[in-house]
Design brief:
The protein is an alpha+beta fold. The protein folds into three domains: 300 residues, 2-Layer Sandwich (Nucleotidyltransferase, domain 5); 100 residues, Substrate Binding Domain Of DNAk, Chain A, domain 1; 72 residues, no CATH class. 41% of the residues lie in helices and 27% in strands. The protein is built from 15 helices and 28 strands. Strands 1, 2, 3, 4, 11 and 12 form a six-stranded mixed sheet that branches. A six-stranded mixed sheet has the order 18-13-14-15-19-22, with helices on both faces. Strand 1 and strand 2 form a beta hairpin. It is globular. Bound molecules: adenosine monophosphate. Adenosine monophosphate (AMP) binds next to helix 6 and helix 8.
């Protein structure tokens, strides 16, 4: 049997893993039974990792032992601005690592953000392995379309720590449209409106004969459901009685519980006009001695929630306007609007989209699952090379070289189809220079200060001489997944320098290797435990299968028919195959029989 491949949606709030089975993309359920895995990671009292639902539960009791929404900080530089930005969003502190990478503190330990992402990916890998009964190594992972080079590289680094080979990184909206397009064989212009827990992406895709071309992308990597929750939290804090208001506004434990209540109210308002909110025992939990506590009891109406969210909905519309302008398209030229991300269930968001584009958005694909399903479809195609839906993508941001006057000379413009190679020749700023530094920027501003610096190429041992003679050719190659490599050549001497731009915030080599080993050790222990539990469950399943065969046998005797006899034969042979596989220790075959038996048993129950 061919080695399975999986598609992973590594989300800010939730993550999901999917695969193509029997020609259809399906979500792989987690070992704890859910279809989505909360992107929450924690360390329990023994310092053991907990991921997903278990970590979410741990957060209720020990908020300091858990981190979430960490995707927002993945691959970013730990600047004072970012630390400040994070303070408004999450109660755990960001700490700079040795390469300027972001680290988080939980349960008194400091962990690199890539390790946190690797823990989530590792958990999804284990879910997939339990599903298939064998090792799974290859995957496609989705990233927001506006993720820059560093963020993409960090995603790859996290995958590598988790022991996953990334066949390709795919933009989330593209993956969603892939899931949609293949299920409906759609032709035309599709707009993907993806509002998740922490990020917002808008993409316009032209879909024709199975080819998906991203015409334009835009977004805001700091806008999502968490911000809507925060609006409600701020409103709740304002209702706390004096003099405790300020203390509650700073208290990690109180804020955490207010946030849970705010999110629950937001979800309730999707179905109802009003949500009651009641949070007790708020106060300063870090204060010494006896504590004064208070509570908030209030009602939030849908219309007031919409008023509170006004600045955020305005930002959503501004992004839509910018993307339409870049695509040189009128909102009416959009043939279909696809909603992706849990936040698109909110009536306000649906209304905004319908008003802006003049058409009701499509919700055919489950908004929380579309991205993972699309990733699975892409992974399946990459291994089968069927060419059924070739994916054409574009550069999400412009890249260029820093030149005199603090300006940026663009080599590859935003929305250019990728992969692409671009070259230009530059002169040193002074004659006789022995060394030149070529800074590389990503972004849309004309000036360096308005862009994001990716790194620099340093060319040494130049031969000096007149300025015009010392020509340096810079070549940018942007891969199909948006990762940039840069090469600079001294045209006179042929001296060349290649830079790995991702080297800047990635982990120091020995640390990455140590984390990979740790992850592998954890995964192998966990896999043994999973195998034991799976075997136990499988034995019970076979017993249920035998019982079903006996029931079917009896009814075939009472009402004989060829169909009834065949049904008995199907169940019997499946149970026999399962017993033989168990005897032979063939985990993959057991997993296959298990899935078929579950289908049979649930079909009968239905
Ligand atoms: P995602 O990152 O796509 O999983 O989106 C998660 C975000 O969607 C979170 O902010 C959730 O609170 C929000 N969300 C999920 N379901 C609903 C719902 N039924 N109503 C309102 N918001 C929801």
């Amino acid at each position: 049997m061919q080695e399975p491949v999986i598609g992973i949606d590594l989300g800010t709030t939730n993550s999901a893993v999917a695969t193509v089975e029997g020609g259809r993309a399906r979500i792989i359920p987690s070992r704890s039974g859910g279809r989505l895995t909360p992107s929450v990671v924690g360390l329990d009292g023994d310092g053991e990792r907990v991921v997903g639902l278990a970590a979410q539960r741990l957060a209720e009791e020990q908020p300091d032992s858990v981190v979430w929404a960490t995707k927002r900080f993945l691959g970013r530089r730990c600047t004072p601005e970012l630390i400040e930005e994070a303070r408004a969003l999450v109660p755990f502190p960001l700490i700079p690592g040795p390469t300027g990478d972001v680290r988080v503190r939980m349960a008194g330990k400091v962990l690199p953000i890539t390790q946190v992402a690797a823990m989530i990916l590792g958990e999804l890998k284990l879910d997939a392995e339990a599903h298939f009964g064998r090792r799974v190594n290859r995957c496609v992972i989705t990233v927001p379309a506006n993720f820059d080079d560093n963020q993409r590289s960090a995603t790859r680094e996290a995958a590598s720590i988790a022991g996953l080979e990334v066949l390709r990184l795919v933009n989330e909206p593209t993956a969603a449209a892939l899931a949609y397009g293949l299920s409906r064989s759609f032709q035309g212009n599709a707009l993907v409106f993806d509002l998740g827990g922490g990020t917002f992406d808008v993409s316009i895709l032209e879909v024709k004969d199975g080819v998906f071309e991203v015409k334009a992308t835009g977004g805001d990597s700091s806008l999502g459901g968490e911000d809507f929750d925060q609006r409600i939290v701020q409103w709740l804090v304002a209702q706390v009685e004096e003099p405790l208001r300020e203390a509650v506004g700073r208290d990690v434990s109180s804020l955490r519980r207010l946030k849970v209540a705010a999110e629950a109210a937001k979800r309730e308002l999707t179905e109802q006009e009003e949500a009651l909110i009641s949070v007790a025992a708020l106060g300063d939990y870090t204060a010494e001695g006896s504590r004064r506590l208070t509570g908030v009891e209030t009602a939030l109406t849908r219309s007031f929630f919409e008023a509170l969210s006004e600045p955020l909905s305005r930002r959503c519309l501004e992004v839509c306007q910018t993307v339409m302008r870049e695509a040189k398209m009128e909102p009416r030229a959009v043939d279909v609007v696809l909603l992706v991300g849990g936040m698109t269930r909110v009536p306000l968001v649906r209304r905004l989209v319908a008003d802006f584009f003049g058409r009701a958005p499509s919700t055919d694909v489950h908004p929380d699952e579309a991205v993972a399903l699309g990733a699975a479809i892409q992974a399946d195609e990459l291994v089968r090379q069927s060419g059924a839906a070739l994916l054409l993508d574009v550069a999400g941001q412009s890249v260029g070289v820093g030149v005199l006057g603090g300006r940026v000379k663009r080599l590859i413009a935003k929305n250019t189809s990728v992969p692409v190679v671009a070259r230009d020749v530059f002169l040193p700023s002074r004659a006789g220079q022995a060394e030149v530094r070529i800074p590389i920027y990503q972004g849309e501003g004309d000036f360096q200060d308005d862009n994001h610096k990716l790194g620099e190429v340093v060319l040494r041992n130049l031969q000096g001489g007149a300025r015009a003679e010392a020509q340096i050719e810079v070549t940018f190659a942007l891969s199909s997944e948006g990762i940039l490599s840069v090469r600079a050549v001294d045209k006179r001497t042929g001296l060349a320098e290649q830079v790995r731009l991702d080297a800047r915030t990635s982990l120091p080599g020995p640390e990455a290797a140590k984390l990979s080993q740790e992850q592998a050790r954890y995964a192998s222990e966990q896999a043994q435990e999973d195998a034991r539990q799976t075997e136990e469950k499988f034995r019970k399943l076979l017993e249920r299968g035998e019982k079903l065969a006996r029931v079917l046998q009896r009814s075939a005797q009472e009402n004989p028919s060829p169909e009834a006899v065949a049904a008995v034969g199907t169940v019997r042979s499946l149970v026999d195959t399962g017993r033989a596989a168990l005897q032979a220790g063939d985990a993959e075959q057991c997993a296959l029989v298990s899935r078929q038996l579950i289908q049979l048993l649930s079909g009968r129950a239905a």
